[in-house]
Design a protein that fits this description.
- The protein is of the alpha/beta class.
- It contains 20 helices and 14 strands.
- Helix 20 links the parallel strand 13 and strand 14.
- Helix 9 runs parallel beside helix 13 and helix 16 packs across helix 18.
Amino acid sequence: MFLCQNKENMKIGFDNEKYLKIQSEHIRERIAQFDGKLYMELGGKLFDDHHASRVLPGFKPDSKLRMLGQLRDSIEIVIVVSANDIEKNKVRADLGITYDEDVLRLRDEFMRRDFMVGSVVITHYSGQHAADQFRHRLEREGIKSYIHYPIDGYPHNVELIASDEGFGKNDYVVTSRPLVIITAPGPGSGKMATCLSQLYNENKRGIRAGYAKFETFPVWNLPLKHPVNIAYEAATADLNDVNMIDPFHLEAYNKTAVNYNRDVEIFPVLNALFEGIYGENPYKSPTDMGVNMIGFCISDDEVCCKASKDEIIRRFYTATNKMADGADNESEVNKIRMLFNQAKITTAFRPVTTAAYEKKIESGHDAAAIELEDGTIITAKSTPLLGCSAALLLNVMKYLADIDHEVKLIPQSLIEPVQKTKIEYLGGKNPRLHTDEVLVALSVLSKDDENCRLALEQLPKLRGCQVHTTVMLSEVDRKIFKKLGCGLTCDPVKKK
């Protein structure tokens, strides 16, 4: 049965074109402040920044890449990877590939978009065999590589670091363009140290190069407790990052700016390193080092506030699901609960969540709900034949295709043999059809059934829609919703 609530169309809260323009202009200005050479540490995701697109509706997941595209002829990219991570076969959790493989993936992705990838820097090198093997692989593929070494007492032993026995021992990375972007497969790779090492070695060669950080969040010129900034804390609750007023910025300019604890804590060290390299620090605060203009491009604050509150709730469900799966992340969950109070919300703020709960109470079964782009909410419940997520897909496709709800797109006579195979031959315990099985069945039937064909044609309309289920879904169901581009959350309740 459908539950329909018609609301106003989804609104855009972020001016993406303005962002592309003023962010690229600001980076050009920063390059000009130095001797035409800027090393820019790139934090966060470049290709697929879905967090930013969720909290800032209108921000495209590849906006940062598109913005850099406007500077393409001035850009050289250097990819950094830690020898320790290579040795440990460290894996990117989101992609399931090792950091060394991701270096090659990133290089290919950049080059496919006509960016110049100059070289790879292997940091924290102390003779690791796996790092040597990786370097030989890079050499075979015609990729230049350089070695940077661990420095005793880094980052506090400034006298040693800013000397020929510190940064001076590192390979000098030869670059040819004014803007050098330092990126990496993940945190802890050594991006900042690589930038600072280059500043030292450029200075020895008579070039006063600059350093900047390009991170999207927290947004420095929004209030500390703005929902966009609170959502960033929720996203990094597992790291225990804390947004805070930049005390150095306040002291230098008597102006409030938002930063986060790690940048504030490391700034005295960076200040000493800059003084060790140049004799003075061109920056008076960690906020000064950033080149983030995203806060100036919010076109509708109310829209972004709502989207950010939705994101905080999404992060809460992600954390509680991890806990239900056995993770020891109680502190992460408690942190997000605290952020609920700061944002003055509960899970009921999200309409699709409430709709799923109400459907569960009404039906007495596991339930699911989806909020469409126009605000319409459609619900479904589990049946003996279909799980609640599979039933939801059928319901929403019928609604969008204007097919009567009572029409059975997949006949029971087709479902039952599939169930028999799942239980009797494959040893499954849940006879209900999953979302992928429903879509395959519809695809088979669509050749001769107009309704099935029309239903499948509605799937692109689900991109960007919010979904909630009152039970944790299987991996296959979660992947289907991800492929459809839906924002899925689940109650931390395992299927019985």
